[in-house]
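Obj: model holo form, ligand = guanosine-5'-triphosphate.
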Amino acid sequence: MKLVVIGLGQCGGRIADEFAKLNRRAASQRKIEIVTGSFAVNTDAADLSGLTTIRRDYQHRILIGGRKTGGHGVGKINELGAEIAKDDADKVIDAIRTTRRFYETDAFLLIAGAGGGTGSGSLPVIAQHLKERYMDKPVYACIVLPFEHEEETEERTIYNAATCLKSTYSVADAVVLIDNQRYIRKDSSLRNNLDKINALIAEPFYGLLCAGEEKKPKYIGAKVLDAGDIMQTVVGWTVIGYGTSQLPLLRLPGERTRDFRKKGTETQKGVQAMDEAMSELSLTCNPADSRRALYLISAPSREMNVDLVKELGDYLRGVAPQAIIRNGDYPRQRGLLDVTVILSELSDVEKIRYYYTKSTSLIPAVQKRQEETATRLKAIEDASKDIPSLI
Ligand SMILES: Nc1nc2c(ncn2[C@@H]2O[C@H](COP(=O)(O)OP(=O)(O)OP(=O)(O)O)[C@@H](O)[C@H]2O)c(=O)[nH]1
Ligand SMILES: [Mg+2]
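Output (holo structure tokens):
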């Protein structure tokens, strides 16, 4: 599958930069292309220049709202982010149109942090423009949810997340949810290492995008998971999980491939990777709520067998009984078996309900504060009414 990837705001831009790296890796290791164009859009010029892999020209690192923000961001006001994106949408769309081999692109992937201002506000606006302009290409959003400490210390974070999620869900074909907090729960040393978290966020997409683009027969699985399968699966609220199992690199001399005991071990390794993928989903959710799902197994071809594929299928059916399940095998990895899982069309997501409920109860307080500010400003203005003006 080939994507045009557009990162909005700081968080989005940096993760889009990771996708640009994945594409380089696919080109050098596998001679295939998975990202036809990667772009970063921001109101903050410094954030754009901090990226490493997205092309440096103004058509790939796109500064919006220059006049309104002076190139310094929108300070978490996502209404302003949305406003600026509406004014500058044509600039973004025109740049995306310059993508080489744009016609080969299967879908758009837009990425942003929900808690900030620029990305949170502009993602739904740009998604809507892309949907209107390119009816034949799905528009997917990947939304990064804030850390717990941000939610606790800043109410605006929750409000931004709620408005971003609601607006994006109404225009995008699917919303992939990524919870920042999940990554530090797993490894607290990551708290101050956003680069590492970004790499972990992007990694599961590597095999998923590569699998359908392989041209060499020896890397093509018994059941290829291609762009069509992914597009059929990814709809509405979506989460992604990824797990790996190490395999012995060398087979002992004389060891037989068809040994039934060996086969049992392979299946066990597969289940272990699947367990990890399910317990490390990008956001905590109940798998039973998903209506569409897929899994991809990548391993050296000699480690792959029908039992393994079937076992993992049974596993997923057990936890997501109402889902239509698609699957694929990808004979590529060396010394590693990995499993990628997508659970999609989720009928309930607790965290999102939390953002919506919490924001609704915040609205009166936010309005009251705005009114108080307006009253105070009015009082100053009134006090100045007899002072002559210089302009
Ligand atoms: N995973 C990850 N999260 C990030 C990164 N940078 C920021 N965030 C998260 O994204 C949210 C803030 O969004 P930003 O992307 O910084 O904000 P912005 O879109 O640039 O908007 P403004 O700076 O307010 O104009 C917070 O919840 C951060 O924790 C990053 O590189 N990786
Ligand atoms: Mg910013």
